[in-house]
Structures are given as C-alpha cells and as structure tokens.
C-alpha cells in the first residue's frame, strides 16, 4: 500500500494547463522531492494533495483511500509553507496548539502535546515568545511543530529552506531530515534547488512544465537522466554529437574507443567531473583553457577543443592557468547517450 498516490492529476487555471497528467506514488515513511524550476506546478501539486485546491481530473489516494471529497482537516496531510505563515499575535505555544484547539481538544491534552512538540523541535522554554522574537530557523521549527501537532500521515514542505541563510539552511536540512526519519512520516518536499533535492531525498520527481519527467533515486537521476531536458535541469553537462560505429565514437572533437557495437547517431552527455586533465604527456585530446574558477575544494574549467567548449570540474591540487595548453581524457563508457 502506498501512502499517497496521484493518478493522472490535471489542473488548469484560466484555461492554461498547469498540471498535465501527474502520476506519483509515495511509500509510507518515504521522503520524496518534487524538483523543478519556478512556475512548473510544484506548489499547485502540494495544494491539491492537502486539499487546498481541487484537481480538474484524476484521482488522489491517501492510504489507499480516495480523498477527493475529504475536507482539508480530515485528510491527514499538512503543508508547511515557505514563509511559515505563523500567527503573529499568538505565542509559540498558541501557534503550535492551534490545530488542536480548532479540533476542540481539552486544554490539558493541548498543553501536554505542545510541551512534547517544543521538546521535539528543540524550542523548550520559548513557548511564551511571539513569532517576531524568533530567528528564521526557530520560526521554521514552530511551523513544523504546528504541522505535526495534528499527527498528520503526510507532511508537505514547500521550499522549506529557501528563506534561510546558508549556514542555517544546512543545519535545518539536517534537523528536518533527522526528525522525518525519527517520526517515519511520509514527506513530500518541493524545491527548485537540485543540490538540496539530491542530498535529502529518497527519490526525486523532476517536474518540468507541469509534467513529471522522471522519478528515481538521486544518483540515478543525476547519472542516468532519461532525457536531455532532465539532464540539463540537473546540471551543466557536456553534450557531444557523434556517430557510434563498430566500437568507435566519431565526434566533432575526435575519435574515441567505446564498448558499444551499435550503429547510430547520438548525443553523448558526459559530466564535467568525469573528464580528467593532464599535461604530463602528450596523450589525449589537446585543448586550451579559456576559463578557470577556483572554488577551494574544486576548480571549474572551460576548455576549448577545436570549436567546442568543454566544462571540466577538477578536484586535483594542480591548478592550470588561463590560456594554458592541456590534454584531456574522457571515457565515453561513463557517458549517457541520447
Ligand atoms: N490560483 C491561481 N490562479 C491562477 N494561476 C495560478 C494560481 N496558482 C498558481 N498559478 C499559476 O500556476 C503556475 C504554477 O504555479 P506553482 O505555484 O504551482 O509553481 P511552482 O512550481 O510551485 O513555482 P514557485 O516555486 O515559483 O512557487 C504558475 O504559472 C502560476 O502563476
């Protein structure tokens, strides 16, 4: 039994298709990211799951039950929005207990639950503060605690880390990841940040123009994208056109041996980190360094070979200089062919 299943969900606004046949199964306790650029329909998908928007077509199951007619508060799916939407005139404790108060729970039960959640999100002693007396990370933890107060089956996080600065973002990613694992709560996280999706997801659904283009584990999505559009969204790769013929790959930059006996015209994708630079011998393809960007633990290069720019990411200690002649080695057996 999947915890959530979307079957051919469609949604239009003002006659414009925003979601086009979205299908997705999320297993119990799984953490899945919806990854895509701004405007591709990620938030709309979350709102449909939570019941804040109605889909035009398709079916939505939560725990094997069709929830299309189930109201928001009974779906067992809660959203935490990007800007947290805390009630400014309520204390932290009142914010966290809000859903329970609405459900007319007894005061002692609310207090007990709020105390437990304050402890869980490491905000003990801050229950009497107001939201504007909290840091960004603390506000986010209040929002998470408020969402968890109603014991949801599904947690929906909309760009949870985008309002936090870099250091805090890493800390909160780790905090929420650990909390999610501890509670084993099925989670869908929306992000446009590929590195974030790669780092914290069990699986990633890449969404482009209202369609899910690929659903896979992070390393599969990165290493074996099924299309150039998914590959492009995941990073700056190299694409090299050529013909495979009898174990050789004839390209615009040179001829390579390859373990592939097919005969076809392809575009090969090769990652910048899978290309190696060397100037200790005259072997390999000769090129000229046209850009060097030093980033401490890695160096970004652009290299001109014939009329083609190749991107390389090196983690070697050796730093090559601009305009230096260089030999590059690339193994197309690590490439993906489209
Ligand atoms: N209530 C609405 N009425 C009309 N159009 C809407 C409505 N809500 C969203 N849209 C449009 O639907 C498209 C998808 O919006 P959505 O918020 O789902 O995108 P997103 O992928 O979450 O992007 P972002 O990260 O920028 O929020 C956008 O073009 C948006 O303008």
From TrEMBL:
GO cellular component: a single term: ATP-binding cassette (ABC) transporter complex
EC number from the UniProt entry: 7.6.2.9
Domain ABC transporter intervals: 4-234
Superkingdom of the source species: Bacteria
Matching InterPro entries: AAA+_ATPase, ABC_SmlMolc_Importer, ABC_transporter-like_ATP-bd, ABC_transporter-like_CS, ABC_transpr_FbpC, Mo/tungstate-bd_C_term_dom, NA-bd_OB-fold, P-loop_NTPase
An annotated Gene Ontology molecular function: ABC-type quaternary ammonium compound transporting activity
Keywords annotated in UniProt: ATP-binding, Cell membrane, Ion transport, Iron, Iron transport, Membrane, Nucleotide-binding, Transport
Signal peptide: none
PANTHER family found in the cross-reference section: SPERMIDINE/PUTRESCINE IMPORT ATP-BINDING PROTEIN POTA, SPERMIDINE_PUTRESCINE IMPORT ATP-BINDING PROTEIN POTA
The name this protein goes by in its record: ABC-type quaternary amine transporter
């Amino acid at each position: 039994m999947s915890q959530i299943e979307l079957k051919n969900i469609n949604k239009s606004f003002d006659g414009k298709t925003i979601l086009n046949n979205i299908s997705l199964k999320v297993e119990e306790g799984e953490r899945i990211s919806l990854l895509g650029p701004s405007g591709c329909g990620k938030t709309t998908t979350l709102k449909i799951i939570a019941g804040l928007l109605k889909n035009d077509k398709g079916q939505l199951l939560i725990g094997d039950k069709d929830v299309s007619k189930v109201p928001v508060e009974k779906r067992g799916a809660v959203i935490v929005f990007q800007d947290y939407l805390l009630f400014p005139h309520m204390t932290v404790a009142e914010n966290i207990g809000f859903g329970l108060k609405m459900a007319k729970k007894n005061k002692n039960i609310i207090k007990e639950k709020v105390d437990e959640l304050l402890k869980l999100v490491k905000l003990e002693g801050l229950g009497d503060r107001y939201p504007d007396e909290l840091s960004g990370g603390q506000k986010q933890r209040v929002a998470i605690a408020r969402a968890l107060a109603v014991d949801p089956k599904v947690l929906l996080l909309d760009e949870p880390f985008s309002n936090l600065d870099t250091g805090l973002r890493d800390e909160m990613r780790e905090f929420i990841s650990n909390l999610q694992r501890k509670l084993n709560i099925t989670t869908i996280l929306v992000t446009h940040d590929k590195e974030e999706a790669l780092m914290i997801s069990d699986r990633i659904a890449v969404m482009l123009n209202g369609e899910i283009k690929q659903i896979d584990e992070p390393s599969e999505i990165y290493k074996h994208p099924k299309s150039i559009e998914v590959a492009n969204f995941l990073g700056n790769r190299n694409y090299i056109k050529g013909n495979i013929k009898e174990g050789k790959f004839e390209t615009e930059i040179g001829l390579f041996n390859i373990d592939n006996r097919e005969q076809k015209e392809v575009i090969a994708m090769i990652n910048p980190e899978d290309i190696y630079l060397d100037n200790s011998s005259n072997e390999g393809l000769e090129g000229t360094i046209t850009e060097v960007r030093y980033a401490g633990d890695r160096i970004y290069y652009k290299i001109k070979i014939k009329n083609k720019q190749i991107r390389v990411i090196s983690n070697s200690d050796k730093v090559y200089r601009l305009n230096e002649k260089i030999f590059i080695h690339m193994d197309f057996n690590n490439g993906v062919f489209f």
